[in-house]
Amino acid sequence: MKSFITYDSQSDFSIHNIPFGVAILQDDSVVCVTRVGDTVIDLAYLYEKGYFDQFELEENLFEAFGLNEFISLGKEITVPFREYLQQLFLEDSELSKDEETQTEAFHFIDTVFMQLPVHIPNYTDFYSSIEHATNVGKMFRDPENALLPNWRHIPVGYHGRASSIVVSGTPIHRPSGQSKPKDSDVPVFGPSQRLDFELEVAFITNAYTELGETISTADAEDNIFGLVLFNDWSARDIQQWEYVPLGPFLAKNFGSSISPWIVTLEALAPFRTAGPKQEPEVFPYLQFEGNKNIDLKLQTTLKPESGVENVICNSNFKYMYWNMSQQLAHHTINGCNIEVGDMYASGTISGHTEDSFGSMLELTWGGTKPLTLSDGTERKFINDNDTVIMRGWCENGEIRVGFGEVEGKILPAKA
Amino acid sequence: MKSFITYDSQSDFSIHNIPFGVAILQDDSVVCVTRVGDTVIDLAYLYEKGYFDQFELEENLFEAFGLNEFISLGKEITVPFREYLQQLFLEDSELSKDEETQTEAFHFIDTVFMQLPVHIPNYTDFYSSIEHATNVGKMFRDPENALLPNWRHIPVGYHGRASSIVVSGTPIHRPSGQSKPKDSDVPVFGPSQRLDFELEVAFITNAYTELGETISTADAEDNIFGLVLFNDWSARDIQQWEYVPLGPFLAKNFGSSISPWIVTLEALAPFRTAGPKQEPEVFPYLQFEGNKNIDLKLQTTLKPESGVENVICNSNFKYMYWNMSQQLAHHTINGCNIEVGDMYASGTISGHTEDSFGSMLELTWGGTKPLTLSDGTERKFINDNDTVIMRGWCENGEIRVGFGEVEGKILPAKA
Q1: Where does the chain bind Ca(2+) (chains A, B) (predicted)?
Q2: What's the rounded Cα separation, in Å, for the pair B308 and B286?
């Protein structure tokens, strides 16, 4: 497949990708867009020019602050729609000869502001990397019995705060809160001293279900539109003091950052792979067939204010013990209903090796082994004015499909 | 104050109340409403007839599926608006003489279907009754050290699932899920055997804040529009197996039920009272002035399918250790943003005496002391086809302001 839109061979946004996002254009209009290379394509404009007439959409769903209406059409529409877009961007297509439309609908990426791609009604965070759960268990509980008894039976998850999910590039203030230092009998109050990132991937659902309805592992992926990169910022000291017995709360809900482009499951299909073997056997409602993991390379870098990016982690989404179909089947087995635009994050994705750990907590082993950056400074956790950048891409020697990045800078605590 | 709309002296919806809700009328229109006695008043119709012209609203906000737009106007508008409504319903008012409008705008309560009063973007559940937290700690942890170390320092809370909050009258299917019986080495799967209610009260916010912004205890109530009764259905066996380390998840998100009428903070003002003394002293951001608790009587009844209501609990919202202002100040101290329509529930409200405990878990002490109902049957937890009804009202010898009820029937597990 060769597109008439030129791009670098290392671009995440090859003709094989065709992701979806929402952008503010230079004329301040907010529209749904796709992207090839560094070219952002205004879908609302293409709609107006009649390029989508064959889909008989009732209105211009792309003149919207979120992709929710579009993705709610379901895969019956959105899969052929994406394939049609792909054809439209090939050499010798109708669009390739329509210079007037190209002039109006095509925008260089640096001239637009990417927004949250969907309105997010509900957000759940899982805890599905066995390496991450084991590392945390070793540090905070029993090194000999690091995994809790339920972990291999349940894709453990908890509800997060949807309101504080922001798009890549949004700075986050260091949270203040209570924590209890080890050498103190009483808690203290102040800016978090152990601010961390968590390298995650999140999926977005495209359907509404009724309360009481379940989704099987076989049907789960029909309800998943696509994925984004997810940085689940975490304040470890606040978390440690607050999380027993009801889970993380203020340690997490001060902000989570996502990448702006939703990469569809269909674009990721060539990169499917088997997940880790699950022992003991899981309950029938969690059993599944086929390759449910994705060979999606993940990287995290840390950039000090006046420095360069330091690669601090190389991980892979394929390490996930529990896959997305199992997560969604578990989430709904009690009849919990899902909504269009819901976000379901994986939990921190760590691998076996020390350089694949997906959080500072693990990389510095609770702050006991600081990282040394290229500028000679050390990090136990994230400093003020540090920027954390996560990238994700799939590559198989023939094609490349990537997510771009999710970037976030930590500003000092407010007062 | 005497209304031209007649009502029983024991009505929760006296002229002193003037609550807000959303109803489907007999012509299938969905409108925002208020209520006096058993008369539901269509605010959208009153708007059309010019009764609200003085407020210079930009459009008919009452033709809506939720009160979100109305409450987002803030107390500067909504407080005088409610007072104006109250005047409108008094004897000799303009409306009292406008029989045509009364005919069109007034509906008998049994002829309308009450809906969720707001769209709920985010839902948080606190754990703010010291009696409840102590009871749970005694049962599941150490009877001598029932309260966890953080409890008197932090209004402990966690995020719940907004999508599965339903209005009173909506039946709920018993959830299925994993649990681990005490005598088993491995978990089992099936319908919950320990289905419970939790008697709670929830407040609803009327504002959007920016990420990074905090709300002080002094300002908190400006951001609280009003309250509803809240039944936080809970599956204790599922909860016990899943909740360590990230908190309750499938044990809660199969459904929560709320009463349809939002009673405003202003209607509850005459019933303010002091809360329990807080020891040790709390951090400055949690300190407050004035009477922040409310003398709101709460009752729970259990009705078997072919039986009568059995009163199983009499509690009071005034028992709360942490008040709403502290909850909201805590929730935002890290910069977490709030949204219009967010729901913040209190956690189970228990008193000191055994008949004031707000859950079956406490009332039957983990199932060890079953309740005997009037039909001679016993209950450790909630059976299929049982209906749980919660009521709440304030009374001071002169006036009565109440919430009506939140009712929910448990249907058998699906398949």
Answers
A1: 125, 198, 200, 232
A2: 44
Those of residues 26-85 in B touching chain A at CB distance below 8 A are none
CATH code assigned to A21-114: 2.30.30.230
**Average pLDDT taken over every residue of chain B:** 97
Interface contact B414-A243, CB threshold 8 A: no
Are the C-beta atoms of B95 and B101 separated by less than 8 Å? yes
Nearest to B335 among A173, A244, A333 (CB): A173
Structure tokens at A362: 């693990």
Nearest 5°: phi and psi at A261? Answer: -105, 125
What is the distance between the alpha carbons of residues B205 and B339, in angstroms, rounded to a whole number?
7
Q: Can you tell me the distance from the alpha carbon of A273 to that of A296, in angstroms, rounded to the nearest whole number?
A: 10
Which chain A residues contact residue B149 at CB under 8 A?
180
Question: Which residue type, as a one-letter code, is found at position A161?
Answer: R
Instruction: Find, in chain A, the residue whose alpha carbon is nearest to that of B254.
Output: A336
Contact B246 A158 (CB under 8 A): yes
Q: Which residues of A243-376 form beta strands (DSSP E)?
A: 256-258, 263-264, 272-273, 293-294, 297-303, 310-316, 343-345, 371-372
In A, minimum Cα distance to B242 occurs at: A150
* Residue A141 confidence (pLDDT): 87
Which residues of chain B does A335 touch, with a Cβ-Cβ cutoff of 8 Å? 173, 175-176, 254-255, 414
Q: If DSSP codes are grouped into helix, strand and coil, which group holds residue A217?
A: helix
- Residue of A286, A413, A339, A407 lying closest to A72 (CA atoms): A339
Alpha-carbon distance of A33 to A102, in angstroms, equals 13
**A296, A351 Cβ separation under 8 angstroms:** no
Q: What are the domain boundaries of chain B?
A: 21-114, 123-411
Is residue B159 annotated as part of the catalytic site, yes or no? no
Q: Given this model, what pLDDT does residue B415 score? A: 67
CA atoms within 13 A on the CB side of B234: 26
Please say whether the structural domain A123-411 has been given the CATH code 3.90.850.10.
Answer: yes
Dihedral (CA of A116, A118, A119, A123) sign: negative
Furthest-apart CA atoms within chain B: distance in Å: 73
What is the DSSP annotation of A64-102? SSSSHHHHTT-HHHHHHHHHHHHHHTBTT-TGGG-HHHH
Amino acid at B369: K
> Residue A91 burial by CB count (10 A; 0-12/13-18/19+): exposed, middle or buried?
exposed
Mean pLDDT by 10 residues, chain A (415 residues): 96 98 98 98 98 97 98 98 98 98 98 98 98 95 93 98 98 98 95 98 98 98 98 98 96 98 98 98 98 98 96 98 98 98 98 98 98 97 98 97 98 90
* CA-to-CA dists, residue A231 to A16, A261, A274, B34, B372, angstroms: 25, 14, 25, 44, 51
Q: Mean pLDDT across the stretch B60-77?
A: 98
Structure tokens at B403: 């919430």
Per-residue pLDDT tens digits for B392-407: 999 999 999 999 999 9
The complex's ipTM?
0.97
Q: How far apart are CA A130 and CA A244, in angstroms?
A: 21
Cβ of residue A154 closer than 8 Å to a chain B Cβ: yes
**What pLDDT, in 10s, does the model give residues B301-343?**
999 998 999 999 999 999 999 999 999 999 999 999 999 999 9
State the count of interchain CB pairs (< 8 A) between A and B: 182
